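Thread: "does anyone have the structure for this chain?"

Original post by V.I.:
We have the sequence but no experimental structure in hand. Need at least a predicted one for the grant figures.
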Amino acid sequence: MRPALPACLAVLILLEGEASARPHPPGESTIAYDMNAAGQVAAVLEDGDGNTRGVLFEKGKVTDLGSRGGKHSDARGINDRGQIIGSVRNKNGTWNAFMFHRDSGMRVIGTLGGPSSYGMGLNQEGVAVGFADIPGGDWHAFIDDGGGTLQDLGTLGGKISYASGINKHRHVVGTAANEQGLRHAFLYTPAGGMVDLGTLGGRQSSAMAINDAGMVVGASETRERRWRAFAHDGKRMVDLGALIGNYNSFATDINNAGHVVGTVLVGAERMSFVWRDNKMTVHRGGQGLHLTNAINDRELVIGATYDHGMSAATMASSAAAVITRGGSELLTLICAVLTMAGLGVLYKLRSRGIEIDRNG
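Reply from O.Q.:
Generated one for you, tokens below.
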């Protein structure tokens, strides 16, 4: 249900200026999930005891979002207003979705009648989505506009649904079970309700993000039981993974320019991809990200690199075609170049030596 936090992570924050690296404190790790246009980063920090805290990174300062007396919280998304969506674990073991802003602190979001809720995404107006358990224990996707009551988005005829993204029109995407119990990507609109986006010929699919133009991205199983990244334009599902090759691929985010990012699995190796202007670029090792979480409208890609362990990172990329170690071509596609809009420096800001504000 909720992805486990990878071990040995450290955050890399893109700020204006020159690159600077700080040593990583033993037993402490961080993963960045999202970044807004101002360079603020929503992240999760894990200490040596395994306790996790949602944090805001901004200009060399770390703000602890709080945990309501518990040991765990996270931060999954941030908009250009500086609002953060996340979840916090209560002392009794239940979770609550929350919205956070530096000026107003944490606002806990309710549930759908069960004990827990999880915040997964938000739009620029601060409308949040996620999933919550209903009486009886099943999970349903919700939308929250701050009015105090969550709206249950329902399912595709099955028992569960999860919301993961929302755009300015309050169009929501995620994953829901159909009558056969298979999980399919969905698009929810206020006018049309929940619609099944189908698959690439396989049994399952999942939608991760939607931009303001209504383009949806995610991953789908194929007839061959491979997972392929897709983009859905409202009429059909386009197989982006076919541009990469016969590997498992997963699209994780799309910005308003229509640029898509995700992760590729080649055996045990993970690589990142960027699909931009109908051209696919795959980045390997030090040239790219091992994991990819998001891309913002300034074309900054958020994810994690691997070098004797995982390090969360933000990058802009203009790599050459990927070549296997044996010398054979893996891809011969034309490279896409991401413009940095003045933010062309990769920063490594680790938590040691950075001021931590625990008062929000």
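V.I.: this helps a lot. The CA atoms of residues 53 and 73 lie 5 Å apart.
O.Q.: and Confidence is low (pLDDT under 50) at residues 1-27, 317-360.
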